[in-house]
Amino acid sequence: MKKAETTEKDKDDFKVEGGRKLSGTIETNTSKNGALGLFCASLLNRSQTILHGIPRIEEISRIIEIFESIGVSVEWIEKNSVRISPPIKFSLNKIDSSASTRIRSILMMIGALIHFEKEFKIPHAGGCKMGQRTIAAHRYGLEALGVSINTEESFYEIKSRVLKANNIVLYEASDTATENLLIAAALIPGVTTFRFTPPNYQVQEVCFFLEKCGVKIEGIGTSTLIVHGVKEINTPIEYYNSEDPVESMMFISAAIITKSDLKITRCPIDFLSLELLKLEIMGLKYKKSEIYKAKNGRTDLCDLTIYDSKLTALVDKIHAAAYPGINSDNLPFFVPIATTAEGSTLIHDWMWENRAIYFTELNKLGANIILADQHRVFVNGPTELRANEIICPPALRPAMIVLVAMLGSKGTSILRNVYSIKRGYENIAERLNAIGADITIL
User: Fold this and answer.
1) Rounded to two decimals, what is the model's pTM?
2) What domains does the chain contain, in order, with CATH numbers?
3) pLDDT tens profile 3-18
4) Which of 13, 77, 142, 318 is a good FRET partner for 380, with 20 to 30 A between their CA atoms?
């Protein structure tokens, strides 16, 4: 098994010459979260699965390491396309524990593996360091389907005897738990109903894929999903992953903080509409193209042109919520945006115990951000940002907002240890440079 190069990549740094305007056109890449859900769902298929639109990022490298360690063949057949071939029997006793503890999406493998192994262990999930991340929604939902999960010090012990369709209310509106449970229900003959499901983009992506596999799902795009499980999935499948609304939001934020006119193509508009409304009320000028379909034939896309605008802080707070609320991954990008707005913006990140603390890293660049408590910050603006050297936060979106803020900071900034960014963004330095940024990889 070929191991991905992790150790040295963890040490990469970015040198950012800030204060430069962006211009031209940038295309939104395909989704990290969608790709991870598709990988886990592909384990249901006893035949080959070809997935297109898979970003070449560190998070995907880790899931491939895990797949290969348990006997799954994963082959890159094009730049962003993979062929996944299952083994006759999974080698779960050989699972790559190092890669497993670096990503959270390993939890979504449980929903598929319970159909092929009655007892197995998987390491505790990793991912962003943002406080306590419970698996309660996964546990209670899987238990209702006939699975037991015992938590040991470094691993979960999974047992499944007789799986059964059921009527389930999710313990919380968790995207990954919903995907996990959808994958589990797909191979349980009968009708399983899930309520309080967040109809977020990655959840819909898994639904579209399962439908392609022959699983009927009612209620896609709503908070109630009805899954008509099948006995087996054993047919060649080819599927296109769609675009990442969080990357579109990042480019919107970068355009605003650099006071630029920028065209962003292939934006999943349904998952950006509330964010754009908030920004429009703040004073953002932008143009939206006609709607067109992603390559999966289901997701609505459009092109957005962002114009240099004078912004004013909203009088009420900005907070995340389950879709159709502001996406929890989009919320941090309002922090650099708020540094350009006249007045005080309250940003409430209730979902994570300590992610808001990372928002204050922008103070090192000259922002005026007051931490009210571990969930809330007041961003006072406008402020003129200035260059500095910062160690990358150990969480993807907080790391990325530091880079975005550096684009708007005059002078030379250094961002140390950018593995967190490379977990979720493919060739981001090169792509930003193509629209006028000046980022050097050290």
Assistant:
1) 0.94
2) 9-29+243-441 (3.65.10.10), 32-240 (3.65.10.10)
3) 333 334 456 999 999 9
4) 13
